[in-house]
Amino acid sequence: MTATQITEIAGFFDEELAPIVRRMADRPRAQDADDGDGREVRAMVWEGLVGLDALGAPDTVRLAELLGSVLYQGPLLDTLTARELVPGDVLGQEPVALAVTDEPWRERDGAISARCSFVGFAAEVEHFLVSGGGPGPALVRAGHPSITMRRYEEAGRGEAYEVEFAGTPVAAWAGSATEWPAALAGARVRQAAYLVGLAQAALDHAVEHARTRRQFGQPIGRFQGVAFRLSELSMHIDATRLLVHDPGATAHAAACLAAASDLARTVTTRTMQVNGAAGMRSDNDAQLYYRRAAYESVRLGTPHRLRRESWDGRR
Amino acid sequence: MMPAFTPEQDGFREEVCKLLCEDAVRAEIAQSRRLPYGEESGLLEVHRRLGKLGWLAINWPERYGGSGATIVEKAILTEEMIRHGVPDNVHSLGIDIVGNAIHLFGTEEQKQRFLPGLARAEITANVLFSEPDVGSDLASLATRAEPDGDHWRLHGRKIYNMKAQHSDFALCAARTSTGPVSFAGITLFLVPLRSMGVLIEPVWNLSEERFDLVTLDGIRVGPEDVLGEVDDGWQVLGKVLPLERTGLDHSAKAERTLAALREHAPPGCEERLVELETRVRAARLLAWRCVANLHEGRPDEVHSATAKWYTSETAKEVAVAAVELLGPRALLDARDPAAIAEGVFDAGFREAPGLTLAQGSSEIMLFFVATSKLGLPS
Ligand SMILES: Cc1cc2nc3c(=O)[nH]c(=O)nc-3n(C[C@H](O)[C@H](O)[C@H](O)COP(=O)(O)OP(=O)(O)OC[C@H]3O[C@@H](n4cnc5c(N)ncnc54)[C@H](O)[C@@H]3O)c2cc1C
Questions:
Q1: Closest chain B C-alpha to A305 CA, distance in angstroms
Q2: Tally of domains within chain A
Q3: I need a labelling partner for B78 at 20 to 30 A (CA). Which of B67, B149, B225, B288 fits?
């Protein structure tokens, strides 16, 4: 991705759109809460990003960091991963969700049966890329009657679904079993970059609060107990950012993602602390970063598991 | 430092556990954690049961609804209630803070008026200290008590308090005079909440329990509603707040989450679990050291600050570690059909940030230890 392209996409998320994007997939807990305008906004953002050629981006890691910094939620990151395995002419410009499962799944007569948990935006993608645990990444078309789904009620309040495929026809086998690990490594590095962007945005939010909130007759940011901790976080973000943008990052993708995962939880937890009780309010973005970081930081594996995998991979 | 529990105290713990494990009680607790969104429990039947037995405020004299036992029995009750998942805010606000303040500093008339009802879970109370611009620096509070004959009228806005919607009255800090020393003119009032002149509005937050914005619009209070002396509320606050900071509630919360985590953590997390377990054990020891101090009539503010900091930070760490170790499943709401451990991890994760803020934030505890224990210049 050229620097101009990144600047253009950053410009797309301008001051007016950015706050809407941050909450476009935040569905308040409520009995049968509907999605309000969220889905429409997400579709509009998807069009905007596709229009800016986000799908053809050469430097997807920088793009992912930018998406994290605006807390973008949608199928773009999954779609980028799918496009590493499935040719663009098959997918067109349509959104894809990764449906990864640990459980063994089956293929019979060109149809698959699998149950996948925590699939993002399942209700609004055109394809699923089913992978992990089974014969090999399979692309299936969404909307087939054999697919059932249920949205989770979870702390992230996003669009995470349990999806069951019961004899769903395979549209295409997406690469060989050996190609999947490489694609997964790419996905993990992008997820790590996304978390770095998210952490930076949370830190910016905390810094702003530390500048403006006054207690004991002064801005709380003047207390070194607050200021030094924010500096510390800033340095950790800096370090992790270099890790994820390093050209060798994919070779250490799992470990990199584990580091970014810890970073995002730490930064957002501290952001909550600096914001005081005000940060817990539903209308305050501090709690939004905290909740989203929790979900996004374990979406592609827990840090514990990622580190284990990284270690085992060296043998 | 655990007190050496007497056989009677061990017996009491067993009886409490037995009651809290009854099917009906467990069902009520589970139900209270799965209320429709936007609703939360106030006093439950289990509180009334405990109240009837004289256990809810067991350390208060019988004439005030207690059983004349010690703070150790009270701590056993609190610990077991939290371990068994009884929602604790309504209890800790009503009994541990407001009730205790009245018990220690109230007039006989105030004790008669409020304590038996609180102890029997017939009424409850909350705390109105924080304001939009006043958090850690409570001494700078702006709510005014304006003289009205020999009474006062209260004007101001109190925010980030909890349970106002369920409470009958509140312990409210207001300014009765202004002067060069900000904490000198503060008075504590016992304010009826279900009255004209009090407006309660929800402030929604990420946890299961809402905050309230309470607008005091000229509600009238009299000398009989003053807790302690006029203009001397700071003294009372200085004694009551450290008392509630034993950290026992936090250590019990950490134990509860950890017990569930042990059950659900995937293989390979053992070292992390041992690390957390050890911290939680230390947290519990710090909390019980504070209880022992109180029992011996030697409250120690450095111990309290240490316990508050360590236990709340530990409880928060355990809550966040559950997400780290269990992955997205830990974030499932109790109301989701796939939820694990009745949603304890999700509720704990959303409650966690508040633990190190409420009842004196971590930074305020650190400051206190730096200056009072280590003798660093303030
Ligand atoms: C769950 C919960 C329940 C609550 N219940 C009640 C209630 O029932 N009644 C009530 O009146 N209030 C209640 N509060 C409010 C609580 O008392 C305040 O949150 C607390 O006083 C801190 O104030 P604040 O949140 O405005 O943070 P602020 O005071 O604005 O502080 C923001 C951050 O700066 C830090 N900070 C402040 N001063 C310093 C310093 N000198 N040095 C270093 N760091 C500093 C703080 O520690 C915090 O991290 C509740 C809060 C929570 C989270």
A1: 8
A2: 3
A3: B225
